[in-house]
Amino acid sequence: MLKMAAKQNMPGLYPLTIFLALVCCYFFHDALALKQQQTLRFRKDGEFKILQVADMHFADGKTTACLNVFPSQMATCSDLNTTAFVKRMIQAEKPDFIVFTGDNIFGFDATDSAKSLDAGFSAAIASKIPWAAVLGNHDQEGTLSREGVMKHIVGLENTLSQLNPAEAHVIDGFGNYNLEIGGVEDTRFENKSVLNLYFLDSGDYSRVPSIPGYGWIKPSQQFWFQRTSQRLQREYRSKPNPQKGTAPGLVYFHIPLPEFANFDSSNFTGVKQEGISSASVNSGFFTTMVEAGDVKAVFTGHDHLNDFCGELTDIQLCYAGGFGYHAYGKAGWSRRARVVVASLEKTESGLWGAVKSIKTWKRLDDEHLTAIDRQVLWSKNSVGHPFAASWMCDWNLKLLFLEH
């Protein structure tokens, strides 16, 4: 009789269960939507600073040994050194935004991928600074699928990462999205995106039997990028406060493009200590970016011993250099991070306006967090402008003063 009564009462529970599940889903997605709508904007001093962290290769924390450090460092070196470096960079640079460009965890050595992701991003989360991430080729090699890794990242605190754009019904990969950086509050540019960030999934490995090697950015992703770039350019030139030209764009993904191989020591800033591990086919994404007209720089990881920036067809192609201590490196060659700062110009009214320049440097994880390879990636001023050299000199002196 009790079993029969229980069965008779069961149907009434189903609608309630379904209702509660729908409510939970609604609030979960609503929370994600609100998080992704968080406004990023330039500071009152007219600058916006981005910290790039490439290739953490985080695994199991203090039990995960470091790679390619001096023998004397091995006993005390672990994933925790990577976390400490993130904290040092945040404290030193006080970035407005942090970007993790893939291989955030090393899946093969991560006992629990979700826990490794939580630990790897913990310093960024604790800082309360907005952050975003894309996937590399090692993130999905643990206990979560590639989609599962990105979904977990999207659910973490303070992240503006997205699984994929809502408007793209069919798109390859996971973690294709864009973010808009508004002008300074209480200026005519506060509701206009003056700097655009694009994030793409460059894949892991080729799924085409006749094409060996790494993945690449697919046509569906390039189509989304083109449409998004066109929309942002239209909005920039539209009322209210229509602008001429385009707002500059920065692009972040993991695996470098074949075009990174166009440089040697005579035409880049930084070092090249290993080959360019791009896909074995050229998907044409570099040409797509050139045609779009708004991209000023691309930032990748993947090749840990390369940290250079080189300009090709008016686009800077930049490595960050290896960051993580469980990632391969080179003993005596410090782990490093890249910093990018966009600066605004003053309008005739004396208020902050559009982006004037984009600068970069790297910091080493040494005793002094040494800053190296300062350079201007893009400027509204022409390269041959008579004041360009003196302006660059003034900027270097300012940085030198801040370091000491």
Word description of this protein:
- The structure is a single chain.
- With 404 residues, this protein is α/β, with parallel strands linked by helices.
- It is 29% helix and 21% strand.
- It has 9 helices and 13 strands.
- The chain has helices at residues 2-36, 71-74, 79-93, 113-120, 122-127, 146-154, 219-236, 285-292, 388-403; strands spanning 40-41, 47-53, 97-101, 131-134, 177-182, 193-199, 249-252, 295-300, 309-312, 315-319, 336-346, 352-364, 371-379.
- Strands 1-5-6-7-8-10-9 form a 7-stranded mixed beta sheet, covered by helices on one side.
- Helix 7 (219-236) packs parallel to helix 8.
- The radius of gyration is 23 Å and the shape is globular.
- The protein starts with a helix and ends with a helix.
- Mean pLDDT is 89; it is low at 1-36, 383-395 and 399-404.
- This is Calcineurin-like phosphoesterase domain-containing protein.
- Its cofactor is Zn(2+).
- Homodimer.
- Belongs to the metallophosphoesterase superfamily. Purple acid phosphatase family.
- Residues 48-304 form the Calcineurin-like phosphoesterase domain.
